[in-house]
Write a structure and sequence with these properties.
Blueprint (H helix, E strand, L loop, with lengths): L5 H11 L9 E4 L5 H10 L3 E4 L2 E6 L2 E10 L4 E3 L10 H22 L12 E5 L7 H11 L5 E8 L2 H7 L5 E6 L19 H9 L2
Parallel strand pairs: 1-2, 1-6, 6-7, 7-8
Antiparallel strand pairs: 3-4, 4-5
Helix pairs in contact: 1-2
């Protein structure tokens, strides 16, 4: 299954999540790629949009490969393979601090005039444009669970089956449109997969 673009993927996700329409769900997008999708979902499901800020901890010689992730509170998830991929404790601590600084900067730019929307007691749908290792989604779901949502849903267009199994303990429901066994990267499953810039994220969030 190949999605034409994030717009089509969001339409298909909205159809899969139709049971939540009219129940005022809180759609939390993982920046940056998922934010335009989150806006579509919020409109389709008559919900509310915000972001959940998490960052992957990058491998030292392969920044696209996640050794773990960190959430806005500083909680970290470390993958079981991190050390064998160069993630020494000293390196991971340094990388964590770098990513926390990026999170702080993004929060200041993305929602400068308001605090994050409180997920307590809400139906919360966390959306990303796809999962590879699942590290950032795990941090996002962990952070949100602590804030006591009524129901916590992970929604993605594509992810490998083993990643979905890692995610399931952290969510009440996992919605994934395509779970291919042969998986190299999220972008492999999109005909168009452009980079989303901070300016676009800021413009979308300023509408909410």
């Amino acid at each position: 299954m190949i999605f034409a673009n994030r717009h089509q993927a969001a339409d298909l996700l909205a159809a899969a999540l139709a049971d939540y329409k009219g129940r005022h769900p809180l759609i939390l997008a993982i920046p940056r790629g998922a934010v335009p999708m989150g806006l579509q979902l919020a409109r389709a499901l008559e919900g509310e949009l915000d972001v959940v800020l998490v960052r992957k901890l990058r491998a030292p010689f392969n920044p696209e490969f996640a050794l773990g992730s960190v959430d806005e509170s500083g909680w970290t998830y470390i993958a079981d393979y991190a050390e064998s991929a160069g993630g020494t404790p000293a390196y991971l601590q340094q990388e964590k601090q770098a990513q926390l600084e990026t999170i702080r900067q993004r929060r200041a730019h993305y929602t400068p005039l308001r605090p994050p929307i409180d997920p307590a007691g809400r139906i919360v749908i966390v959306v990303d444009d796809g999962l590879a290792t699942g590290a950032t989604m795990i941090s996002a779901l962990h952070a949100l669970r602590a804030q006591k949502p009524a129901r916590l849903i992970c929604a993605v267009p594509v992810a490998p089956p083993d990643t979905l199994e890692k995610i399931r303990p952290y969510a009440d429901e996992v919605v994934c449109l395509h779970a291919p066994v042969s998986f190299r990267a999220v972008g492999q499953f999109y005909a168009e997969f452009p980079q989303i810039e901070d300016a676009e994220v800021e413009a979308i969030l300023s509408q909410t």
